Amino acid sequence: MLGIAQSTFAVGIVVVLFALFVMLLAGSFLRARRSDRARAAVSEGSTPGAGRPAVAAAPAPAPSRKKVVVSRRDFFRGGLLASLMVFGAQFGGASIAFLWPNLKGGFGSLITLPDTADVIKNQISENRQPVYFGAGRFYLINYTGDGTKSIYQGITADGLMALYQKCAHLGCRVPFCQASQWFECPCHGSKYNYAGEYQLGPAPTGLMRFKVTVEGGQVKVDTSTIIPGPPRGTNTIHQAPEGPFCVGGAAGG
Ligand code: FES
């Protein structure tokens, strides 16, 4: 599931449902046309004198206005089609509203940060904490470890690395603890160092992350693809906790 972005999954569902809707609609129209043709054929066949040689050409009666009678089946079919169309319009509108944040740069898309790489790095060092970007559900850290050319190759840029806020254990949002300078999960006590690498608790891996690119100082984070967290035992920054923990009682794991 990690390889498929949520927005792609949602678009797939919309497309499948829309195709089903069109198929139902087309099927209903075809059935209606077929039954109209059959009815016409039956009424032709039952015309008095049909199939017998004509005796004399009677003067054609003046055309009279035909009374249109809607059968109960046609009425129900029309009602069904109308309700399907209303449902389709509502569902389409709701889907567009749901996907709109992703289309315009929310979680699940390529996000361009409003600040430049230098401004972000200054904020990180001045505040002694990562920059949190809520719309994209990630933290940006200033990474200076030795994994840039190995385990984190291609996902950091200009010293910036993006960590997914979601705990690798059961998915709680993991806040950053300024005292310890580690990420500490309040749910079951998993702890990750500043680079989001597993240190303590039940989490199976380090924090997941996203690819960062920097072009002309502009920072972009691709949240459409979630990169799995580094395995337990990965430690590229060798950072001991720098103060007391914010979350006590880490469960051994
Ligand atoms: S969800 Fe974070 S430790 Fe369980």
Summarize the structure.
The protein is α+β, with helices and mostly antiparallel strands and 253 residues long. The protein is built from three helices and ten strands.
The main pleated sheet reads as: 6 strands, antiparallel
The mean pLDDT is: 83
Number of helices: 3
Radius of gyration: 33 Å
Shape: elongated
Helix content, binned percent: 25-40%
The domain count comes to 2
Q: Would you list the SSEs in sequence order as H and E?
A: HHEHEEEEEEEEE
Oligomeric form of this entry?
Answer: single chain
**How many distinct beta strands?**
10
- Uncertain spans: 48-56
| CATH domain fold name of the largest domain | Rieske Iron-sulfur Protein
Question: What is the strand arrangement across the widest sheet?
Answer: 1-10-9-4-3-2
Q: Going by CATH, what is the homologous superfamily of the largest domain?
A: Rieske [2Fe-2S] iron-sulphur domain
Proper CATH architecture of the largest domain: 3-layer Sandwich
> Separation of termini?
25 Å
Which CATH first-tier class of the largest domain would you pick? Mainly Beta
Give a list of the ligands.
Answer: FE2/S2 (inorganic) cluster
Strand content: 15-25%
The secondary structure category is alpha+beta
